[in-house]
Write a structure and sequence with these properties.
Layout: E1 2-3, H1 4-10, H2 16-24, E2 28-30, E3 33-34, E4 41-42, E5 49-51, E6 54-55, E7 63-68, H3 90-93, E8 98-99, E9 108-114, H4 117-124, E10 132-139, H5 144-152, E11 166-171, E12 175-182, H6 189-196, E13 200-209, E14 212-213, E15 223-225, H7 228-236
Parallel strand pairs: 9-13
Antiparallel strand pairs: 1-4, 2-3, 2-5, 5-6, 7-9, 7-15, 8-9, 10-12, 10-13, 11-12, 13-14
Helix pairs in contact: 1-2
Length: 242
């Protein structure tokens, strides 16, 4: 049970003060009965709440998949730069989602946003070893020698030796294209791993996280709610396989 003014404010119908004005105007009903008292308690999962005749669909948690564009940072707020939260519609921002992990400012691709802290912790926990797969364009010829090196892990410039990564060469030449799967998320890790073998990443896109693939239908900057099947995979741990 929750106060009706809190419920409607949480669902984006305005501030508590604005919601109280709505209540006084008589446009809000609970189970077809007009409610004007802001202290009235309702069970949104059982009772039918309407505003101007339209039913309020109560949503407590939110799970989104975004195709993050370059130039946008993986943060909830920033005074100078545009964040992934700025790309959301107000009805989604009102639920206070946050990015699960981060993608570098110039990196594109799959980003999960949610307000489910427990799920976020599960996905980010180092103990889970959640695989993350990237597509990248490389300035330099990627060779089998690099594949073998990544399989053993490489030593970064600060002396850290990475866990093994699975490197697949899609196109090799002066400018190469690859797919890389890693189970860590160190700062600029993919770029630093290639720097460790004398090459430079010129384009980077995350295409998979655990068993969850980026929806190819999502354009840069677009997002959608996870399907029930995708959410089930996240919640029951199947996202960690594959």
């Amino acid at each position: 049970m929750m106060r009706i003014d809190k419920l409607l404010a949480n669902m984006g119908f305005g501030s508590r003060k604005e919601v109280k004005q709505l209540l006084k105007s008589g446009v809000i009903k609970v189970d077809e009965a007009v409610v004007k008292d802001s202290k009235t308690k309702v069970d949104p999962n059982v009772q039918k709440v309407t505003v101007h005749g339209e039913e309020v669909v109560y949503q407590e948690t939110i799970y989104l998949m975004m195709n993050k564009p370059p130039g946008v940072i993986s943060a909830t707020e920033d005074h100078a730069l545009q964040t992934v939260i700025d790309l959301l519609e107000e009805k989604d921002r009102i639920l206070s989602p946050f990015p699960v992990g981060r993608l570098d400012k110039d990196t594109e691709g799959l980003l999960i946003l949610t307000n489910d802290g427990q799920l976020s912790h599960s996905l980010l926990s180092p103990k889970k070893h959640v695989p993350k797969t990237y597509f990248a364009k490389i300035d330099g010829c990627v060779t089998q020698e690099d594949v073998d090196a990544f399989k053993q892990g490489v030593t970064l410039e600060d002396g850290y030796h990475t866990k093994p990564g699975t490197l697949v060469i899609l196109q090799s030449g002066e400018h190469s294209e690859i797919r890389l799967t890693i189970t860590e998320g160190k700062f600029h890790q993919v770029k630093r791993m290639f720097e460790a073998v004398g090459k430079k990443v010129t384009y980077l896109k995350r295409i998979r996280m655990g068993g969850l693939d980026l929806d190819k239908g999502l354009k840069l900057g677009e997002y959608r709610e996870l399907t029930d099947d995708e959410l089930n995979k996240l919640q029951d741990g199947k996202v960690f396989s594959g």
